[in-house]
């Protein structure tokens, strides 16, 4: 409310043509732009194998997210969102993605969970990978019961879900949605990623949600095989990694968006550049990202020690 939200701060000095766009296109479904990209699979695969030999196990999704984090560090315009026709700079750098949970023994049922992972714009590919793996490990287990799952299970009856969602939309519209819900809901995020390759599906150009604040949705598809002209005029077989992008065009000028996507794809063509922190990090109008406080870090460390002690006792009992 009044330009201040838990997850964003209203921008004052934006391009007038960009600032007026939400009045012509009030919803995200009005302003979706779709893009297709094909990355050199061979080069990325060789990099992953090379790093694997050094003990660093990276995935294509981790590289994609690391490229996005680095791009936001240099071009913070990529981390904006529109709410109630106002432009906001986020106070967080977060990425949401779905994971397939471990199957119960003897069951063919496939269950999914949604994870939201927060990043520091100074993160390298090593930091990004560590944060993602930590979140996946904590939420993929059958017994995992994170806050998102708890909320979804609570909202299983129409008589409950309809008024709750209406209230959430209203509070979000005016910037007073409680912090606890913003932290839980995967739709309040900088980027949403779908790893379609993990289930053998092609890349999709997925819609972005009107609910929440997501301004960018990207998907990774299964590897595509084709033939192309080689450097010396010969026909060679090539493999590509398709990327599907859906973006809210209202958050910045088209030229800036083109620069954001080009910069991101440039890092994916040269992933070794992500191994070192950025020389400088830009923030819009001084709005830096909120990071975990000392109290939160201490609580997380206490939780980890408790889990380690529990695991140790279980091993002794076994």
Written description of the protein model:
39% of the residues lie in helices and 21% in strands. It has 9 helices and 11 strands. Strands 3, 6, 7, 8, 9, 10 and 11 form a 7-stranded mixed β-sheet that branches. Strand 10 (224-229) and strand 11 form a beta hairpin. The longest helix is centred in the C-terminal third of the chain and has 24 residues, at 294-317. It starts with a strand and ends with a helix.
Write the layout of secondary structure elements.
Blueprint: E1 4-5, E2 8-10, H1 16-24, E3 32-40, H2 41-53, H3 60-74, E4 80-83, E5 86-90, E6 94-100, E7 112-118, H4 125-140, H5 147-154, H6 158-173, H7 179-184, E8 191-195, E9 216-220, E10 224-229, E11 235-248, H8 254-269, H9 294-317
Parallel strand pairs: 6-8, 8-9
Antiparallel strand pairs: 1-2, 2-5, 3-11, 4-5, 6-7, 9-11, 10-11
Helix pairs in contact: 3-4, 3-8
List keywords for this structure.
alpha+beta, four-stranded antiparallel beta sheet, 9 helices, seven-stranded mixed beta sheet, 318 residues
Helix amount: 25-40%
Name the overall outline: globular
Query: What pattern of helices and strands is seen along the backbone?
Result: EEHEHHEEEEHHHHEEEEHH
| Number of E strands | 11
| Residue fraction in strands | 15-25%
List low-confidence stretches: 292-297
Give the overall average pLDDT: 85
Q: Radius of gyration, Cα only, in angstroms?
A: 21 Å
Going by helix content, strand content and strand pairing, the class is alpha+beta
> How far is it from the N-terminal to the C-terminal residue, by CA?
54 Å
Specify the number of helices: 9
For the largest beta-sheet, the strand count, sense and barrel status come to: 7 strands, mixed
């Amino acid at each position: 409310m009044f330009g201040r939200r838990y997850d964003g701060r209203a921008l004052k000095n934006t391009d007038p043509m960009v600032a007026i766009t939400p009045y012509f296109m009030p919803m995200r479904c009005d302003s979706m732009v779709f893009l297709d990209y094909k990355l050199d699979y061979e080069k990325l695969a060789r990099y992953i194998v090379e790093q694997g030999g050094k003990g660093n196990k990276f995935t294509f999704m981790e590289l994609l997210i690391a490229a996005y984090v680095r791009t936001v560090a240099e071009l913070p315009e990529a981390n904006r969102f529109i709410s109630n026709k106002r432009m906001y700079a986020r106070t967080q750098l977060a990425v949401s993605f779905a994971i397939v949970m471990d199957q119960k023994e003897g069951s063919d049922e496939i269950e999914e969970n949604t994870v939201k992972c927060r990043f520091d714009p100074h993160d390298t590919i090593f930091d990004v990978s560590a944060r993602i793996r930590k979140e996946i490990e904590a939420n993929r287990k059958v017994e995992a019961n994170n806050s998102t799952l708890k909320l979804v299970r609570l909202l299983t009856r129409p008589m409950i879900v309809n008024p709750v969602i209406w209230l959430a939309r209203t509070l979000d519209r005016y910037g007073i949605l409680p912090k606890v819900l913003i932290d839980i809901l995967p739709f309040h995020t900088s980027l949403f990623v779908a790893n379609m390759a993990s289930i053998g599906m092609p890349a999709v150009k997925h819609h972005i949600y009107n609910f929440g604040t997501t301004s960018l949705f990207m998907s990774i598809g299964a590897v595509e095989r084709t033939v192309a002209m080689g450097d010396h005029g010969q026909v060679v077989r090539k493999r590509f990694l398709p990327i599907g992008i859906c973006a809210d065009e209202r958050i910045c000028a088209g030229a800036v968006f083109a620069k954001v996507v080009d910069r991101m794809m440039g890092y994916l063509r040269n992933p070794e550049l992500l191994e070192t922190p950025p020389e400088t990090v830009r923030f819009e109008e001084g709005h830096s990202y909120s990071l975990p406080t000392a109290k939160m870090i201490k609580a997380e460390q206490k939780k980890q020690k408790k889990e380690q002690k529990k695991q140790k006792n279980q091993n002794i009992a076994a």
